[in-house]
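To whoever is covering the structure queue this week,

Two jobs came back overnight. Logging them here so there's a record in the thread.

Job A:
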Amino acid sequence: MAENGAEVVLFNHELSPAQERNLERHLQCRVVDRVALILDIFASRAQSAEGKLQVELAQLQHLSTRLVRGWTHLERQKGGIGLRGPGETQLETDRRLLGDRVKTLKTRLAKLSKQRQTQRRARSRNRVKTVALVGYTNAGKSTLFNALTRAGAYAADQLFATLDTTSRKLYLPGAGEVIVSDTVGFISDLPHSLIAAFRATLEATAEADLLLHVVDSASPNRDRQMHEVDKVLAEIGAGQVSQLLVYNKIDMTGAAPGVEKGEYGKLQAVRVSARNGAGLDDLRRVLAEILLMEQADGGGLPALPAESA
């Protein structure tokens, strides 16, 4: 720190409140752990009203475990008229106000979740199939989403560029119209509070007819990232949803676009480049085949574990 003139120290794993407090005392600067950093990135990326509510809820839930700093002004008792009751410390007041805000946010998010459930029921009555794009953060989901639907959703070479679920109609020759949804990217060691806060957004994933698991095929950590995505999918109740692997960024690996089939000709993966459009026609054709097969027999493509890829 002294050599580099650092003002903030980042830790790439979760710190307990006591660890964070002791490190700040010793280093005399702000200490940020992995969870706080992810929350800061989320806060800077949230665009919609719901996304901002979800980020604030996650931040407050994280902060609630940090309201034990040991700073003297938090322990002074102040009685009197107003928000603070007789003999209530500043720390107790902060906790109470924080708890009230958390309750308010959860109520507002629950209302938004009900609205989305109503919309999904309407689509279900109209028998419109839904496809959700999932994958590790920065795998190219939004770029692929834009290439398929011409939606113009925000896409950038950065972590968590997408926080809000965006849905658009896509026409597939032979299969008709489907609803395609772009979702928040996953990451390893994602805090449970974040998964809980974003559960409303992730409902689109759990209730989809098919998941397109977008993989950054150029990443050296590809297999580990696929495993982490499957782990989060299981946590949010989407582990049993039919899944198709989409190996993206083949323009960076030199692989040829095409379809990969396993034993007995079963579809396993499609190789594409969302950036230059290579393999997208194959992906549309495969999507139509899968959805038509589901309409015919109620079955579909089984979820593929990362290890089988």
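Job B:
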Amino acid sequence: MEDIHRILEALQQRKQRSVLATITRVEGSAYRKEGASMLLFEDGTQVGVLSTGCLEADIAARVPELLAAGVPQTYVFDLDSTDPLSWGEGPGCGGVIQVTALPVDGSLRRHLLTLKEYLDDQIEVMLILKMDSDPSAYGYSFVAGSRHRFGEWPGVFPEAMLDWAAAGRLRRSGMQVVPGAAEEVFAHTYCPKPRLTLFGAGLDARPLAAFAAAAGFSVTVSDWRAALCERSYFPDVHMLLDGFPEEMAGRIRWTPNDYAVIMTHHFRRDRELIRILSGHNLAYVGLLGSKRRTQRLLEGGSLPEHWHAPVGLPIGADGPEEIAFSIVAELIQVYRFSRKRRLSYEAT
């Protein structure tokens, strides 16, 4: 998932001066694509990555001058050359990468924390970045939902960009020509964390919750057995819900971007959860257990198309950790495929 969520959390927790670096153009191959960001603090701490280590040291060395100047800068790194005199160690990765670095001043910090509030509320936000050879002509604007805009933009903001945002025309990250103008801007849409709800807080739920949180999911664990719903067992989850399935499922505002895994190991509760979740349009529902057990649960019925039983990719997993890996891999696969399909649909 995107590093922006960890970046915003770090920015909220620390008051130290920092620089936000974002890939704004890629020509050829690259480890990360347009929109990937990292935050570099004045003390050398870094959150996020832009490459496999090719760019980070160079950008980090520029942080003092960026903070001293207080204006954005754009750098171009040619990773295509194998000539060590080009820059760095001549990695020969095959791409040319443009990185725009923004010193995080008071205004940008406030706006980034507003971005976090929107993302935490499951609202997409688009970044539109105006770049120019003159640093004073730089500007940025965040568009939440379709029309609400906040940021620092020099001059009059082109209303056509809001129309494009509302129509979903700017979801693909990269440089875009402003409608009706002869200038380019960088556009990128930040998506909320995908939400994963685990029904069941047994021993096998613990590694799954930890791995899914590390992969970028906002994880909720629900179980009617209060002794299992302990923060010490699930330190990385967003929320713990203690209650019976029908009560807890009713407290969640389900969306088509939600993911769920049923793993209570309790036959009657699993059947109840199948009934409840079948009434919602979710991105993914996984059911832990063998095919034979699933057939018994369904009593001759069938699962919806987007349900997965047995849950997880078929890698021959054995034990809680390996099974958790297989489930998280499948979650990522479904998430990436759905994002790609959505972008392809909205581009037409």
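Note for Job B: The longest strand covers residues 18-28.

Please reply-all if you pick these up so we don't duplicate work.
Q.
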